[in-house]
Amino acid sequence: MRRRVVVTGLGAVTPLGNNVAEFWEGLKTGVSGVDTITYFDPTDYDARIAGQVKNFDPEIFMGKKEVKHTEKFVHYAMAAAVEAVADAGFDLAKLDLERCGVLIGSGIGSLRIIEEQHKILLERGPSRLTPFLIPMLIVNEASGHVSMKFGFKGPNSCVATACATGNHAIGDAMRIIQYGDADVMIAGGTEGAVTPMGIGGFCALKSLSCRNDEPQRASRPFDKERDGFVMGEGSGLVILEEMEHALKRNARIYCEVAGYGMSGDAYHITAPDPSGDGCVRAMRASLKDAGLKPENIDYINAHGTSTLLNDKIETLAMKKAFGDHVHKVAISSTKSMTGHLLGAAGGVEFIVCCLTMKHSVVPPTINLENKDPDCDLDYTPNKARGLKIKTTMSNALGFGGHNATVVAKEFKG
Q: What is the pTM of this model?
């Protein structure tokens, strides 16, 4: 029998706040963390808005020298990890550190250092490149730095599957614990790619919303007037723990990670399969893994990017996977408030699932003013809803046809 896995700690850095409490308060009240970009002058860009992290000081979590030699995606992951470990209530001296691991993914890693150092290369030559260039840009360094912070010597890995990264990281970490290779894992995603190249690249793809005069209304999943996603940044990490290990130390348990499903579209480099087949199979696989039926799910945190294709195809996929029950499920896209955190999205949105069960509140999909006829489900429009939630599902769909779904349920010993 596979070992059971529970969630005992949460940590988040988001456009709505730099900890879980601030993030959750923003979600409940339906505020947007999107605004005009301040990191650089966006005047020449089609899209000039983003979900930026605000008032963040990495030196609270890392030494000044370490901050200087690392990038934002590592800073955000470190902050989220520090919060999650504290939230889990660990006494590190009592942990078997060889049984504790880290699996933090990032869709992009650092573009900023590439932009900076490429300019130096062209203007001043290769001898002037920083020796920290490669360690600063590669996506696995978030896991590496977090493991060093806490001395976790167990499985240490990274996943990079675009916007499905966070869910893959959590699902893969769950498997590591289930199969007995670790007792504790820090898992999730992190991203810090709001840079000239990051915004410019997505502008070139025509993927971003250009509602620049109304930043807070720009991310509008499932709305008829949506015109693209809003790029965001941050990190969402959870502490996954083997159930008996958690019970033995009298840990507070948020929920149980019950199921994990993944699939590939094998269709297109950026567009989802119009039939929704890959997403359907990921949802069905997660339900099968959890030993649940569609009618057992109370809440779905949808991928819900606010793009023309994703929202209607994900809606179609949910209809196929859930049948008639889909009309009884509460659904929301919290990207309406945070923007799309790319590789960090799945981690942040899994935290939302944990909190909906803890607080019996479903966060809204804001800016849903004129529902698309192809998007006709209950997306919890504009206002949070009090509702007892016992089972949740989080969807994540990434460029390249990567699909990952994680199911969590109320913990019962």
A: 0.97
